[in-house]
Write a structure and sequence with these properties.
Helix content is 29%, strand content 26%. The chain is globular.
Length: 574
């Protein structure tokens, strides 16, 4: 029998049906584990309902549900039917500049989806999309509440060369592309990650990252269920409202491993209060994986300093790099030791693309801190390529390119973009970085570079400055360059969300931003736009859409904040 994702999932049911599989965490102190048999009883009931509604093997089911129990069970049900799940972030998370309807409409057409699963609250919003069409069928609300006997579970075992699932890319410029994953690629990714993370049957995972992002879906849910690792899931919305739930959940479930983008570490450090952490112990957690966006050394150090008294060990802080085109994680820091970082010469890095190490500060010059994102997992190789596709030596910045068995087949319905991404059997990620001694260091995105008088920066270079200003919402910003024919270089613009209500005048806030950028980077900002909370929505994977908001800024679609009394107002039009 050919190996497949379905085969791996059902093998766990046959091997150890009473082993804890999943818990859905929301209320501190109340953790109820569901064993493998109970979980697949719920999955079976959902699969039966989907089959009754007409979902067949090989057809696409779009899942537009909040990340949580319903989304997890629906995803597994679709897989067991041999159909193809594709998860999309619900519009409640998309905010003011939502591209949700555009994304859903295009995804429905491109995939020729059979069924779209949505919460009942979206019925009116989707009225125009539904129309009188017979396909896809829209199913609203919880579609099942019971369970079936596992003996009648659908058992479909595709060939490993067949398509297993579809995944949206980040969509930082607008509508995302659709990655096509085969069973062979997904299984190669799962095997590589399990080896790189040194997972064992003694591990327990706690995850708050959304299932509609490959970090939540692959690195957490599918990895754990196929490896027999119990996983507890916390809603992303609950985490953002109360980051202390992440730490309490880790303690109460006895978790050993967890994942978060860098901004999650930052807001937990800033907003998790001691009174909400009474009795919390993090001593069992051996791996806090930081991934999905630029990893800041300051953030990792602050997180350790804040929670060391709760049992957090420095060597438990880990780093990772991955992308949807590679089906999850590609590089991992040492599972037994601390992550790697270094300081490099800013002039050489920004002007010449050379990462020249510094001891931190020399002759009054401040080095740029760069965090390593680990080494490739077993079976995968990393190359750093120049613009002319030449492999660069250690310390030279170029495009991070993967020779990987877990790469996608391509972008569904986009041959041109597929040709750009997949060249000579290699996956070109669009990310910039360099290598040193086998370690990969990430420094930015190819298409988001800001060039000022020959100096090249990434938007994430501004993040440490903005994190230090309490009036700003952490991680909610866009930075970009605008070509200026008069000066012959680019103007630097920062758009950032403020807290509501404002605690001081806007001029003081923008003054702090200007001074911080000058002191940290030696640059003068040309424009600073303060906008109200919820304006600068991120992608479903939590990435910032710098190019998308650059276009809105140029078109006049970003209205600056106005202040009336103590309240913030201001409208932003898409």
């Amino acid at each position: 029998m050919s190996d497949s994702l379905q085969h791996r999932l059902l093998a766990r049911l046959e091997q150890d049906p009473h082993r804890p599989a999943v818990a859905f965490y929301s209320i501190p102190g109340q953790v109820s584990w569901r064993n493998v048999q109970d979980l697949y009883g719920n999955v079976g009931a959902t699969a039966r309902r989907l089959a009754e509604e007409g979902l067949r093997r090989g057809e696409v089911c779009i899942i537009v549900l909040p990340s949580g129990e319903a989304a997890a069970i629906a995803t597994l049900a679709v897989l067991l039917l041999g159909a193809l799940p594709l998860l999309i972030a619900p519009p409640i998370l998309q905010g003011v500049h939502s591209t949700f309807l555009q994304t859903l409409r295009r995804t429905m057409l491109t995939t020729r989806a059979s069924i779209v699963l949505c919460p009942e609250s979206m019925r009116q919003l989707l009225q125009d999309l539904r129309g009188n069409r017979s396909r896809p069928r829209f199913l609203f609300g919880p579609i099942t509440t019971g369970r079936d006997e596992v003996a009648i579970l659908p058992r479909t075992f595709p060939d490993d060369s067949q398509v297993a699932a579809l995944q949206l890319t980040s969509g930082t410029t607008g509508v995302p592309r659709i990655c096509v994953w085969t069973h062979r690629a997904v299984l190669a990714a799962l095997d590589g990650m399990a080896g790189a993370m040194a997972l064992t049957d003694a591990d327990v995972c706690f995850n708050w990252t959304p299932l509609y992002h490959d970090m939540g879906l692959v690195n957490n849910l599918l990895l754990c269920l196929t490896q027999g690792v119990p996983i507890a899931l916390l809603s992303p919305q609950d985490f953002v409202k109360n980051p202390a739930l992440w730490l309490r959940g880790l303690s109460e479930t006895g978790a050993t491993t967890t994942w978060s983008p860098n901004f999650g570490f930052a807001i937990a450090t800033q907003r998790a209060k001691d009174e909400h952490l009474e009795g919390v112990s993090l001593h069992r957690v051996r791996a806090f994986w930081n991934a999905a966006e630029r990893i800041h050394l300051e953030t990792m150090q602050a997180f350790y300093n804040r929670f060391a008294s709760y049992g957090l060990r420095r060597e438990a802080l880990k780093t990772n790099f991955g992308c949807a085109e590679n089906v999850g994680g590609a590089t991992f820091s040492d599972p037994e030791g601390p992550f790697v970082s270094e300081y490099v010469d800013p002039q050489a890095l920004y002007s010449h693309g050379i990462a020249r190490p510094l001891p931190g500060q020399i002759d009054g010059q401040r080095g740029v801190a760069v965090v390593g994102v680990g080494r490739p997992h077993p079976g995968l190789r990393v190359h750093i390529l120049s613009k002319r596709a030449r492999i660069l030596p250690d310390g030279e910045v170029g495009e991070i390119t993967l020779d990987t068995p877990s790469r996608m087949v391509g972008y569904l319905g986009d041959t041109r973009a597929t040709r750009r991404a997949l060249t000579n059997g290699l996956l070109r990620t669009g990310d910039l970085g360099y290598m040193r001694g086998g370690e990969v260091f990430w420094v930015g995105r190819v298409k988001e570079r800001i060039t000022v008088r020959g100096r090249k920066l990434d938007p994430s270079d501004f993040e440490p400055v903005l994190f230090e200003i309490p009036d700003l919402r952490p991680g909610c910003f866009a930075a970009f360059g605008i070509d200026d024919e008069t000066s012959g270089t680019q103007r630097i613009v920062i758009v950032t969300e403020v807290r509501d209500p404002l605690s001081r005048p806007q001029q003081e806030i923008t003054g702090d931003i200007s001074r911080g950028v000058f002191l940290h980077l030696g640059l003068k900002l040309d424009d600073i736009v303060l906008v109200r909370p919820g304006t600068l929505t991120k992608t479903s994977s939590g990435k910032r859409r710098h190019r998308f908001f650059r276009r809105l800024y140029v078109e006049g679609g970003l209205a600056p904040l106005t202040v009336s009394g103590d309240a913030t107002t201001g409208q932003a039009s898409a």
